[in-house]
Amino acid sequence: MLDIQDLSISFHKQPVLQHISFHLDGHECIYIHGINGSGKSTLFKLICDIIKPTSGTITKKNDLQIGALIENPGFLENETLAYNLQFLASLKNQYDSSYIESLCQQFQLDLHSSMKLKNFSVGMRQKAGIIQAIMENQELILLDEPTRGLDQTSIHTFCQLINQLHDKGHTIVIAAHDYLPDIHYTHIYRLEEGQLFLDEMD
Ligand SMILES: Nc1ncnc2c1ncn2[C@@H]1O[C@H](COP(=O)(O)OP(=O)(O)OP(=O)(O)O)[C@@H](O)[C@H]1O
User: Fold this and answer.
1) d(Cα 47, Cα 50) in Å, to the nearest integer?
2) What is the ipTM score, two decimals?
3) Where are the chain's structural domains?
4) What parts of the sequence cross the membrane (predicted)?
5) Which residues, at least 6 apart from 147, have a Cβ–Cβ distance to it below 8 Å?
6) Is 39 in the pocket of ligand 1 (CB under 6 A)?
7) 2-199: CATH class
8) Protein residue with least CA distance to atom 1, ligand 1
9) 3 state SS of 81
């Protein structure tokens, strides 16, 4: 589904990722960790074509649908949650109202609230970011620090949701500092000094 070969990127001549190779067959659930500034968000941005590599290739399966939450999710701040999710899903004509309703309920978000996004708390905004990354049945889901700002109940909901999506055949890559033991990861990687290492699992 995704093949990365010899990928490197530098910012202002400062290398961030160096000769990374990484492959996803599909159905993996991957955890990537690494210290601040190790390049986790950069890797996701490269996969999503938000930025271009200095060298190397990223090959994706034809029509690969990617759902992503990277850094601070961007929304139409003066609009409601329902408007934002409808707007985002309508771009690909994939608005599944009952699924979106169910996701909001699981995260204790009121889809029909008149509150504008600009008044959402950090955790509420993060939940909206997670929902937009998974609401269109995306095959590959990339989540950067997904539990930032989430309370314990919501973290539990999140872990269950990820395991369910993985069981249904979605491929999930989570980059984070916090290791969530309730998620059934298939592989764990470490980004260190621009290189990606496969960690041993217990
Ligand atoms: N557009 C940019 N211009 C210049 N430097 C950048 C740019 N984007 C990222 N960097 C640098 O690349 C490095 C990796 O940043 P990145 O955000 O990918 O790290 P991260 O592993 O996601 O960090 P964190 O754990 O803090 O979220 C950092 O040193 C950052 O300053």
Assistant:
1) 8
2) 0.97
3) 2-199
4) none
5) 126, 154, 155, 158, 176, 178, 180
6) yes
7) alpha beta
8) 11
9) helix
